Amino acid sequence: MPTHTQRSFGGEITIGGDLTVRRLGFGAMRITGKGIFGPPPDRAAAVRLMQHVVDSGVNFIDTADSYGPYVSEEIIAEALAPYPDGVVIATKAGFERPGPDRWTIDARPERLRDCVEGSLRRLKLERIDLLQLHRIDPKVPAEESLGVLADMQREGKIRHIGVSETSVDEYERAKKSATIVSVQNLYNVDERKAEDVLEACERDGVAFLPWYPLGGKGTPRHAALERIAKAHDATPTQIALAWLLARSPAVLPIPGTSSIAHFDENLAAADLTLTAEELSELA
Q: Does residue 69 lie in a domain region?
């Protein structure tokens, strides 16, 4: 396996003008228990995985206070704090977790302030590099939710602000309340409802973080993934990640796993180069 000094990582991306990270990040949702709830079955293994992620050269880690809840942030800090130079931890706030696989939006300003303070403690940070509003709360004006994050940014507790699962209209509204440097939406070869959001991010120089990189089965595009994977002696997920990296320089994929072997497999996708014909098959 190439060392991280030999890997391309799909290049680099600069977030907010001052955070430059490698373009293949890591999503830390699955270092928790079943249903993204409670502790993982082997906490020591989760700690080792996070250390391996950074040792491999990945320097952008995406998490959320709702993963566990709290468990993902705690494990990240246990594994990595004090953080190596250049490692960026992005977290999110705006969900409550009443149980496994259950997610309830709560982005009231007073609660978001508590969420950010809690993330700072758990992550053992004085400032969160990237805090993303996990969801816009339909019961709360977005201006109020983002307003408290902007207040905490002025207080020095948040460096940059992003949003998650937003439409173009919501993104444009969000920009009126805070400087938005990232958008995190569901997006992959098969699921492209956020294409217009990605285009808006490209236009504005904003990072676009696609989650769930492998989507669909039995579709023409998924069949193309299978064919191309065989040609490269790769997995469909690796081809899907390589496609995301090729899709736009604004894209920062954050594949996640609870397994070191699976992480290494995902990371190898950064070393794949798809031909123009292959990219056309997946268009």
A: yes
Inter-residue contact 50 to 71 (CB < 8 Å): no
CB-CB contact of 182 with 15 (8 Å): yes
Indicate the residue type of 125. L
Domain count, the chain: 1
Q: Which residue has the tokens 């938005």?
A: 180
Decide if pLDDT at 3 tops 70: no
Q: Enter the tokens of residue 164.
A: 């998650």
Please report the pLDDT score of residue 220 as a whole number: 87
Asked if residue 190 is part of any domain, the answer here is: yes
Catalytic residues: 67
Nearest to 183 by CA among 212, 142, 211: 211
Q: Residue 5's pLDDT is what?
A: 63
| Residue 279 maps to a domain | no
- Residue 10 resides in a domain: no
| pLDDT value for 1 | 61
Neighbours of 43 (CB within 10 A): 14
* pTM greater than 0.85: yes
List for the chain the helix, strand, coil content (%; round to 5).
40, 20, 40
Rounded Cα–Cα distance for residues 51 and 171 (Å): 34
Q: Is the dihedral of CA 166, 171, 174, 179 positive or negative?
A: positive
With a cut of 90, say whether residue 123 has pLDDT above it: yes
Spacing of C-alpha 29 from chain mean position = 9
Res 213 pLDDT > 90? no
CATH code at position 83 = 3.20.20.100
Q: State which residues form the domain around 269.
A: 19-216+250-273
